[in-house]
């Protein structure tokens, strides 16, 4: 139980940790063998070490980049924003080798990837793994919140500090010190301060940290001639001197000191990682005492006392780094190399996740209607992206200051000493759309015809382009009789391209992978706003990839409601980031709290999380949005009576469905704990209003068979044209086994979005994990008479395209990340499938590699 929240305990843990390390070095203590080992490890000359920018969020600008501090035997990562795990998979950085994660602040921007990371590590190997997490004292709020869905064992190594200067790591390889920065609202007038400059009290999440990483000095060479001249005989005393201890001369009556026989030692490199998030922190940064030894004072005689800093990595945003006060502070480091790693617009067009960008681009070439151009290509291309980034022009620093803009995987080499300095060899080549298309055409020449064929099909047949008459005419000539099987549902009559679009932002299960992010479905209602169904880690980043940087912000601002199916991490760990982004975007403009509808355990998490940062939301339990609950609400709204009956009804429903004795049962259903349904009535009134404004008639949750408090959802649009045309109906299964409630809810659905975690041959696996197979999902849709079925939530075993049997897919499509299905194109959706098979013809293989091992993870 090493986790601690108070300073006192934290300190003792920290000191204990350091002491243990120190004991290994103590020559009077411990077995000789260990000592030998330590001495050998001590020799830093043979070590390879560097700091490297991990560019998570550099292209999407939604999350802080991370910094890797690499040693042969130890790895440290600073910050763990959303997408870090996916980034590491893409760039082959082994998560299992990371020993320590440091947070420069505690908020969704810097720590959004932590929950998913901890769960993945906990599922690794036989025993599971854990990692040391360090951060300012606000870390305790995050840890408390994560306890609602992460096993405590995965977080026992979370430790926080609240002293102004704290040393978490001090061993033979590196010393890492943390310097706390507290904002000064009282002294600095900051426009971005939420409640104005009158605020004095620190809020959680306000403290940021400067990390100082110091490598040990390299001792000078031992000179045997000098030793002999001072009367020493070769032997153990030579070694003592090399270890830094003075010894008695053998032949003379003098003490011999290390400096007498050793050449000049070379100081170890020093790297600073600086996060100064607001101008309010800047004053503290400029005056904090702990940094004084690291400034260079060329003219003063105290020069020898100064520690020379080799590299400063700035995570601070441009709004801070552009100020003259910040630049003055930067110039105090003399000749240090400055790396500006805050968000830079020039990085927006360089996709960090090249593999998924490549697939998105290929899909877009084949079928732009269902796979619109990704956000990073749709911007006007900057013709002259400089290969070598120079100092941003806004810097007016002395010429001795070396300043460059960070790029993904840029390194600053620390050891060996001869290579000290920048290393660009790891920076990936820029991926361009034309190059990806060129490769595709040379690999699959038939794709050119296929693409043209699809364009003709879709242009002739989109309802919005001329309606169902062309559909009929074309059918006669294409000899594909299956299209006749399902007549166009009346709800699609006269539909426009501005009615509704389903954007599959994440289509993988369990953990984010190279090609598929975790679950999130964006229901785009265009001028009427939008709704998110589930919100896995990286949902904001995926929105940015789909709509572009600004488009995604507009989408976030337009959110009417977020609905979460169940408490598994692959469905909601992106929620805090989205809510925080919305809060910041709407700051200063009048707006409503965003309604989050979700399982009860999610409320526990959000309540705890909001002690760290306010998410500007209100919570409605899914169980108050079941059909029975809603009926009860409607009738009580009419009769103005208490609605306790609905809870009875609802609970009965739940208890039939959820397995007894489940581990999580006690969290949500304590015997006799009263559920106050009437307290939900104001929220249900809000929901009703929101739906009306969005042109929707209903949002109904229904219980499914997966884990306690797991739900599916029905979204129904209001009738159109004076009620002559019925509204469309979307059903999303959440994670589930096929069950009668799902079939019942899906009756007559226009689109059923159904999970299909496993291929048909894996029924047993599907039963064991409470998921569905492809065929089971299709059967649910068929028996419910759904017009179209979209399969999603694929096991990460299927890296690019899942295994499926085409013969049963006449009304079905499989989902890909970023696939966007406009209601107007719905009739043609299944016809695209054979072409997708062509695109992936060489890649329909199962990936059994270790990094997609999901054995122990809850999905
Ligand atoms: Zn899942
Ligand atoms: Zn699940």
- How many distinct helices? 29
Poorly predicted runs are 1-42, 187-199, 381-389, 467-482, 641-674, 848-857
Helix/strand class = alpha/beta
Residue fraction in strands: 15-25%
Shape, principal axes of CA atoms: elongated
Mean pLDDT: 83
**Rounded Rg:** 30 Å
Question: Care to count the β-strands?
Answer: 30
Q: Into which percent range does the helicity of residues fall? A: 25-40%
Ligand types = zinc ion
- Major sheet: size, sense and barrel closure? 8 strands, mixed
Distance N terminus to C terminus?
A: 27 Å
Write out the strand line-up for the largest beta sheet, numbering strands in chain order. 6-5-4-3-2-1-16-17
Textual characterization of the structure:
The protein is an alpha/beta fold and 859 residues long. Helices cover 31% and strands 17% of the residues. The protein has 29 helices and 30 strands. The strands form five sheets. Strands 6-5-4-3-2-1-16-17 form an eight-stranded mixed β-sheet, with helices on both faces. A seven-stranded mixed β-sheet has the order 7-8-9-12-13-14-15. β10 and β11 (255-256) form a beta hairpin. α6 packs antiparallel against α21 (600-609), α13 (354-366) crosses α15 and α19 (539-557) runs parallel beside α20 (575-586). The two termini are 27 Å apart. Mean pLDDT is 83; it is low at 1-42, 187-199, 381-389, 467-482, 641-674 and 848-857. Residues 509, 519, 568, 570-571, 735, 793, 859 line the site of one zinc ion (ZN). One zinc ion (ZN) is lined by residues 509, 519, 568, 570-571, 735, 793, 859.
Provide a quick synopsis of the model.
The chain has 859 residues and is of the alpha/beta class. The chain is 31% helix and 17% strand. It contains 29 helices and 30 strands.
């Amino acid at each position: 139980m090493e986790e601690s929240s108070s300073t006192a305990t934290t300190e003792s843990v920290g000191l204990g940790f350091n002491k243990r390390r120190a004991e290994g070095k103590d020559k009077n203590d411990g077995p000789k063998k260990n000592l030998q080992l330590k001495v050998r490890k001590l020799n830093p000359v043979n070590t390879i070490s560097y700091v490297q920018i991990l560019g998570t969020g550099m292209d999407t600008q939604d999350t802080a980049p991370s910094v890797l501090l690499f040693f042969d035997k130890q790895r440290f990562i600073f910050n763990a924003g959303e997408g870090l795990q996916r980034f590491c998979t893409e760039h082959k950085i082994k998560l299992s080798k990371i020993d320590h994660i440091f947070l420069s602040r505690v908020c969704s921007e810097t720590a959004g990837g932590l929950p998913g990371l901890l769960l993945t590590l906990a599922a690794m190997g036989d025993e599971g793994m854990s990692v040391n997490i360090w951060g300012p004292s606000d870390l305790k709020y995050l840890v408390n919140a994560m306890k609602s869905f992460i096993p405590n064992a995965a977080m026992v190594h979370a430790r926080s500090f609240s002293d102004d200067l704290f040393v978490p790591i001090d061993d033979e390889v590196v010393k890492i010190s943390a310097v706390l920065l507290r904002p000064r609202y009282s002294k600095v007038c900051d426009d971005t301060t939420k409640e104005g400059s009158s605020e004095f009290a620190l809020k959680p999440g306000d403290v940021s940290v400067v990390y100082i990483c110091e490598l040990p000095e390299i001792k000078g060479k031992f000179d045997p001639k000098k030793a002999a001249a001072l009367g020493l005989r070769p032997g153990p005393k030579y070694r003592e001197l090399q270890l830094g201890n003075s010894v008695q001369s053998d032949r003379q009556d003098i003490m011999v000191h290390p400096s007498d026989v050793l050449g000049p030692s070379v100081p170890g490199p020093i790297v600073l990682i600086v996060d100064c998030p607001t101008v309010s922190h800047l004053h503290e940064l400029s005056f904090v005492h702990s940094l004084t030894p690291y400034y260079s004072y060329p003219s003063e005689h105290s020069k020898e006392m100064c520690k020379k800093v080799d590299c400063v990595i700035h995570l601070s945003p441009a709004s801070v780094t552009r100020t003259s006060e910040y630049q003055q502070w930067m110039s105090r480091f003399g000749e240090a190399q400055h790396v500006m790693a805050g968000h830079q617009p020039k990085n927006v067009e360089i996709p960090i996740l090249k593999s998924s960008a490549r697939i998105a681009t290929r899909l877009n070439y084949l079928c732009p209607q269902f796979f619109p151009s990704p956000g990073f290509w749709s911007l006007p291309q900057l013709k002259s992206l400089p290969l070598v980034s120079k100092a941003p022009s806004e810097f007016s620093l002395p010429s001795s200051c070396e300043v460059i803009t960070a790029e993904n995987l840029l390194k600053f080499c620390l050891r060996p000493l001869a290579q000290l300095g920048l290393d660009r060899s790891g920076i990936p080549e820029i991926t361009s759309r034309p190059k990806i298309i060129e490769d595709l055409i040379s690999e699959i020449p038939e794709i050119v015809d296929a693409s043209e064929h699809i364009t003709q099909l879709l242009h002739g047949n989109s309802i919005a382009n001329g309606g169902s008459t062309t559909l009929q005419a074309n059918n006669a000539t294409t000899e594909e009789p299956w299209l006749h099987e399902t007549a166009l549902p009346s709800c699609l009559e006269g539909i426009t391209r501005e009615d509704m679009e389903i954007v599959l932002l994440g289509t993988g299960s369990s953990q984010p992978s190279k090609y598929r992010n975790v679950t999130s479905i964006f229901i785009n209602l265009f001028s009427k706003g939008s709704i998110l169904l589930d919100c896995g880690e990286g949902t904001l980043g995926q929105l940015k990839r789909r709509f572009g940087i600004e488009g995604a912000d507009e989408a976030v601002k337009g959110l009417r409601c977020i609905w979460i199916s169940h408490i598994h991490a692959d469905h909601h760990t992106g929620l805090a980031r989205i809510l925080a982004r919305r809060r910041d975007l709407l700051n200063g403009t009048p707006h409503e709290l965003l309604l989050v509808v979700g399982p009860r355990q999610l409320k526990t998490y959000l309540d705890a999380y909001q002690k760290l940062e306010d998410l500007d939301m209100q919570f409605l339990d899914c169980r108050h949005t079941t059909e029975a609950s809603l009926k009860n609400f409607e009738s009580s709204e009419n009769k103005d009576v208490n609605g306790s009956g609905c809870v009875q009804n609802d609970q009965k429903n739940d208890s039939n469905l959820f397995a007894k004795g489940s581990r999580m049962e006690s969290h949500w259903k304590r015997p006799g704990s009263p559920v106050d349904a009437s307290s939900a009535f104001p929220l249900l009134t809000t929901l009703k209003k929101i739906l009306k404004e969005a042109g929707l008639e209903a949002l109904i949750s229904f219980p499914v068979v997966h884990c306690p408090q797991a739900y599916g959802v029905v979204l129904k649009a209001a009738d159109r044209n004076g009620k002559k045309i019925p509204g469309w109906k979307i059903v999303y299964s959440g994670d589930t086994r096929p069950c009668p409630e799902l079939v019942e809810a899906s009756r007559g659905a226009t689109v059923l979005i159904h999970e299909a975690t496993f291929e048909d041959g894996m029924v047993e696996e599907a039963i064991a994990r409470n998921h569905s197979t492809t065929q089971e999902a299709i059967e649910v849709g068929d028996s419910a008479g759904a017009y179209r079925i979209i399969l999603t939530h694929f096991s990460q075993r299927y890296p690019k395209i899942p295994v499926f049997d085409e013969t049963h897919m006449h009304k079905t499509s499989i989902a890909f990340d970023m696939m966007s299905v406009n209601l107007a194109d719905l009739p043609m959706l299944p016809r695209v499938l054979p072409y997708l098979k062509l695109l992936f013809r060489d890649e329909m293989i199962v990936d059994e590699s270790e990094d997609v091992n999901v054995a122990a993870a809850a999905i």
